[in-house]
Specification:
129 residues; mainly beta; Histone H3 K4-specific methyltransferase SET7/9 N-terminal domain; 10 strands; flat
Length: 129
Amino acid sequence: MIRNILVLSLIALSPYLALADSPFPVCKDNPNGVVKDYYESGALKTEWGCKEGHLNGITNMYYENGQLDKESNYKNNERQEITTSWYEGGELKSVCNFNNGKLNGEHKVLNKDGSIKELTYYKDGVELE
């Protein structure tokens, strides 16, 4: 009985185990190009930049109304440099810096009117006091 459960578990998990050693799953079908994902309405949801099977370059996420939600830069599957996000109406929402996938430097969150809602500083993913 335990053996059957173990075999069934391995069968169920096999697709995920197969991806563990493969390039970034989003880039699997288009390892050197832009992978696009769409809302059910047909509107563009996400554009992932891929190179050699890994996230590399600019990734854009959109609201269903077409407004840019978030823009990030990736290098070898890790966020780098500045990530910017906007409210659905187009107002700037946040700006943060990444280094090797970790928050690093200033992380600013704004209200819709542009006033600062939160201002936090990070070093290697750890919030500074």
